[in-house]
Amino acid sequence: MQDDLFGDPATATQPAKKPDLQHPAAHHAAGARAHTADTPSARPRRSAGGIAPAAWSEALHALGAQLPARLRLGTSSWGYPGWQGLVWAGAHSEQALSRNGLPVLAQHPLLRTVSIDRGFYRPLTVSDYARYAGQVPEDFRFVVKAPSVVTDALVRSEDGRGREANPAFLDPTLAVQSFVAPALEGLGPKVGALVFQLSPLPWQQLDRLDAVIERLHTLLQALPPLAPHAPDGVVALEVRDPEWLSPDYLPRLVEVLQAGRATWCLGLHPKMPPLQDQLPLLRRLWPGPLVCRWNLHPANGPYGYEAAEKRYAPYDRIHDPDPALIDALAQLVHAFTQRGQNAYVTISNHAEGCAPLSAERLAQKVSSLPKM
């Protein structure tokens, strides 16, 4: 079962030739941009802030209908003016989109989740989460990052440098009070994945990673079960140090995640091993949902967010296509969803240059794979 699930890709059916997605003009040429199907899903609504959806093509609606029901595909945040013509019509400021863009994003034919990243910098309140939940359809799910006050081993200065040890690192009480409890109360059944993304650890803690894993165990044991409030919800661990996957620590990490009803977040980031090297951990956690965050293209380097911003802004086209990764990720999504497991995949603009277009590229590949 496991070898089949994560082994050599199955033979895929050949998809129809797709348009070049390097530029939004080519993207909208597919399927007659000026026409949409006469269905409720094809008659999108303006947001409360007057932001209108883009003129999504019949082809894009058809692609969305072909995706597995258990796949929640989405982006990292949503306040990007460069998505004009891809997600929304007309020019809007980043501030306007941050306030009023979510309801439009949630109408996109392919996007059924989004990563709420702003809570990483400052904990969100129940009312914050409830406001987001009220802007999306019932089948929409959120991927939410835990606040850095819990997930960063260091207290950092404004330039990101670590100043001193963080006494609240992996504190169970703070994790519940500042993150899990308000997210569950505010989002309710729209919780998808609650992600504890641990920042890179200082060398002193990497040398004693076993002790950090035990602290993680204590935290996970203190978390309330998600199922009563969010039947599709899962807690996921994402890291930025490859040492977590070493044979010295992997067995205990698997035990801790399983005992805490948590899973591994497949972090696609240059600081981490490639997708294939993270599969052994997913195999050992099977069965369970897939949580994946496609964060940063390797061309930008392990510290390359600023470089990616300079190269990719305004995030309106694909700059660094990664077809091999799309193929591998599509096979993984296919393996999980065809065997009855949920899959949450969020994509950053820093992955290839434009998250909505990367999502379309991935959706095309997933839809081309044979159904079981």
From TrEMBL:
Region of interest (Disordered), ranges: 1-50
- Organism listed in the record: Acidovorax lacteus
User: What is the designated name of this protein?
Assistant: DUF72 domain-containing protein
Which InterPro entries does this one have? DUF72, UPF0759_sf
Query: From which domain of life does this come?
Result: Bacteria
Q: Which residue windows does the record flag with biased composition (Low complexity)?
A: 23-34
